[in-house]
Amino acid sequence: MESFSLILAIVVVTALAFDFTNGFHDTANAMATTISTGAMKPKLAVAMSASLNLVGAFLSVEVANTISKGLVDESGIRPEVIFAALVGAILWNLVTWLVGLPSSSSHALMGGLIGAAVASAGFGAVHGGVLVTKVLLPAVAAPVVAGIASMVATRSSYGIGGKTEGEATRKGYRTGQVASAALVSLAHGTNDAQKTMGIITLALIAGGAISPGSNPPTWVILSAGLAIAAGTYIGGWRIIRTMGTGLTDLEPRQGFAAQTSAATAILASSHLGFSLSTTHVVSGAVMGAGLGRKGGVVRWSTATRMAVAWVLTLPAAALVGAGAEAVTELGDWGTAVVAVFLVAASAWIYRLSRREVIDHTNVVADPPAEPSGVVTTAIAAVTPPPAGTVTDGLTATIPAPAAEPAATAPAVPPAATV
Q: HEC string of 72-129?
């Protein structure tokens, strides 16, 4: 085993910084519905989630092995490539956190790794079969499966227990939500914390610190678990607001159905070694729960924005990772430039976030109004409202019909005077 080099130490620290952003970026996956329905207080919810993320990090290394051994050719990867990949992943995480979009931290990491690897060693450095079977296909299938399962569970819940409404019933479902949220947090630790373990292990292999094919060392597992737990405890309140109230309105039984379906999908994927996006799974489950209740509404404008972010995550992080790798190839000073850029960009994004502070005191806000659709706007344009009525902020301009002039009596000549 060779000694730790400076660049290897920088990569490890940067990887743990990514793990921290992953924690607060994905807190909403486990706790958004629990907080929005009032099942748990915000600070207590994130504390529980952080603890279980740490526990989950020790339960499996299958996903870590997918990252460190399967996605790219580890024999041709330098530590600088890993550093460039992490730069792309961290910046994408921070940008989407700033605008409150629950994008995939997992895909940001893999996109950055793919872009940096291609910039360094060409397209042959990426194992296309692993990318398709263990990354892209689960990305498409997982939210659909979780959404259908959640919708069926929600409808079954209302169908079987529809007549058992009341405070006792709601309290029971809130208790179930706490249990299911704990399960999601545990599942998140088994999947997302391992991605950082995998990237650090890949860096250690690239730097010659451990032999190729090695599993993550114990200190890597512990440090990755602690980093994601700390980030989770900070709380990604902006994304919690979007996931909890911006996507749909959930009752306790819907939240329970969504979280249970999501946890099942995440745990199954972790067992199979799929590098699944927990964000995609939970978002699909939340939408399924929203559609499962009669009269439930999904705010498709928010869902569309999320879908666009999902599509852009891999290529955007890959482009930043490739650009960062091109600069690091210039030598040590190039690596220093990329490091300074990462710190400066992160500080700038944080400063922008202070313009509108969202924390545990105001995370549960009134849901945004869904904008009028094309049909509604067209109907409003051709159907004039009553005169003087204000509708949707527009004052009717059609004048009221003029009143008929009052009939005038015929003029009576003055009486003759004598």
A: ECHHHCCHHHHHHHHHHHHHHHHHHHHCCCCCCHHHHHHHHHHHHHHHHHCHHHECHH
Q: How far apart are CA 62 and CA 272, in angstroms?
A: 7
Smallest CA-to-CA distance from 219 within 233, 200, 237 is with 200
Tell me the mean pLDDT in the region 150-155: 87
Q: In the beta sheet, which residues pair with residue 391?
A: 394
Q: What is the mean pLDDT of residues 388-398?
A: 44
Residue the block writes with tokens 């451990």: 210
Q: Is 220 exposed, middle or buried (0-12, 13-18, 19+ CB in 10 A)?
A: buried
3-state secondary structure of 391: strand
Q: Name the residue type at position 259.
A: Q
How many C-beta atoms lie closer than 10 Å to residue 32's C-beta?
33
- Give the bridge partners for 311, in sequence order: none
What is Dmax (Cα atoms) for the chain?
139
Summarize pLDDT for 25-35 with one digit per residue, the tens.
877 777 777 88
Span 162-206, pLDDT tens digits: 555 666 677 777 788 788 888 888 877 877 778 888 888 888 888
Residue with tokens 């995480």: 93
Of 252, 304, 253, residue with least CA distance to 283: 304
The mean pLDDT of the chain is: 78
Dihedral angle sign, alpha carbons of residues 270, 245, 36, 346: positive
393 has pLDDT over 50: no
What is the C-alpha R_g of the chain? Answer: 28
The pair phi, psi for residue 390, each rounded to 5°, is: -105, 120
Residue type, 30: A
